[in-house]
Amino acid sequence: MANVPSPALPKVFVALDMDEAKVAPFIDALDGLDLGLKVGMELFYQSGPGLVRDLAKRFPIFLDLKLHDIPNTVQSAAARIADLGVGLTTVHAAGGASMLEPLGALERDDFKFLAVTVLTSMSEGDMAKLGVQDSSPAQRVDRLFNLAKSSGISGFVCSPLEVQALHQQMPTGTFVTPGVRPAGSAADDQTRIATPSDAMASGATSLVIGRPISKAPDPRAAAEAILAELADG
Question: SS3 for 70?
Fold first, then answer.
């Protein structure tokens, strides 16, 4: 059974993987739709926290910076992110329990951490080159999921191919899934993908969708089609 999205979280976060100059006309085209925006490293490093604060006045924001450092540095950075008006931000589960455990004190009703397990672009061959010889991507996801869960994290980023198994282990968790492509879309650089309706049926709470909307000839129509697909179940 799929998760019921929290009222605070939209079903779809649109990835703003673009230059700042393109952001304003793009989000104007999406005005009034029940969507969130995902701000990643590319845009954040170009434009900084000011843009994030401005965007948060119009849409729910998922700030995807994948924090991974010594515990004190991550805790200090996370505290500053919490003051930007964003609803979600990411940390690498591979940072370990000592990095993850202090973050629970920073969570609020309107601000939550998501642990990143294995990036959706990673294949088993990629993991072998990193020296991870004893795990498939799914096994590695499960291991990092349990590490984060035991450290007090209840939100996760994972591919749509792993979300069902994780949702079964934590039915009340928050699961945000990138690697989502409408039927007929190009896979681009994602290797573990699913359609929006399949991902939600597997237990995703929210989806991250980028190029199928941002690169569409009519981004609003593309977003509306995805929302209609999800509304139809």
Answer: coil
- Name the pairing type of β-strands 155-157 and 61-67: unpaired
Residue 149 is among the residues annotated as catalytic for this protein: no
Angle between helices 20-29 and 41-56 (to 10 degrees): 50
Cα 205 to its chain centre, rounded Å, is 10
pLDDT, tens digit (0-9, with 9 covering 90-100), for 163-216 = 899 999 999 999 999 878 675 455 454 444 578 888 898 999 999 999 999 999
Chain segment 74-85, per-residue pLDDT in tens: 999 999 999 999
Catalytic residue among 66, 112, 129, 215: 66
- Helix H, strand E, coil C: the string for 9-69 is CCCEEEECCCCHHHHHHHHHHCCCCCCEEEECHHHHHHHHHHHHHHHHCCCCEEEEEEECC
**Amino acid at the residue 62:** F
Give CA–CA dist 185/232, Å, rounded: 19
